[in-house]
Amino acid sequence: MVTLVRHGETVWNRELRLQGSQDIPLSEVGLAQAEAVAVHLREEPFHVVYSSHLSRAHKTAERVAEAAGVEHRVLEGLMERSYGELEGWTRDEILAKYPDFWGPGKKYSVPGLESFEELAARASKAVHEIVEQHPGRNVLVVSHGGTINAFLHSISGGEYGAGVNKLGNTSVSRVVRNEDGSWSVLEVGRVDHLGDA
Fold first, then answer.
1. Which ranges in 20-159 belong to alpha helices (H)?
2. Which residues are annotated as a binding site for substrate?
3. What homologous superfamily is domain 2-187+190-194 in, according to CATH?
4. Does the chain have fewer CB atoms within 10 Å around its N or its C terminus?
5. What angle do the packed helices 145-156 and 116-133 form, to 10 degrees?
6. CA dist., res. 90 & res. 50, Å (int)
7. CA distance 57 to 5
């Protein structure tokens, strides 16, 4: 089984500002969320924790790995989508210029923008690599909302993921790869561990 966790909150998340490949650290709230998800998952039998190298995911993963007592490895393929010159823009600023920007299959000519298809291929490749390296093991992956949703979209034929569900900070999603190589989505975006926060 693969457990997918989105990183904790950053100030830019709160401002609805696009982070992409920018290395924005966790806010105080994000650090508390990382602690909450670490406590929530610490009794589960994970073999290893992987994360993006970006500090918001890395720090969240570090806390989860420490609580679970397992190794933490970094895989750059798990990083967030690169949004090129749109990084730092607010959601409203982007939608004013590019309506339906986040929908799968949308094509926009933005310098430095990684296409949705490129992101989905990269995310799928990274998760498949992890599963191949740890066959039959429970692994935990801490990544980013766009990256996790692109992966969910690719393995479910669009039933889950981009344009379908929003992943809150430190939300937990779970998938399993079947013997025939297909994937089953077990749950998406659970945030029970955050209580009313």
1. 28-41, 55-68, 91-97, 116-133, 145-156
2. 6-13, 56, 80-83
3. Phosphoglycerate mutase-like (3.40.50.1240)
4. C
5. 80
6. 29
7. 9
Catalytic residue among 40, 58, 72, 80: 80
Residue with tokens 């650290």: 25
Exposed / middle / buried, residue 101 (Cβ in 10 Å: 0-12, 13-18, 19+)? middle
Q: Using CA atoms, how far apart are residues 40 and 35, in angstroms rounded to an integer?
A: 9
Distances (CA, A) of 158 to 39, 104, 136, 150, 194: 32, 9, 26, 9, 27
Domain positions in the chain:
2-187+190-194
7 counts as catalytic:
yes
pLDDT tens-digit series, residues 25-78: 999 999 999 999 999 999 999 999 999 999 999 999 999 999 999 999 999 999
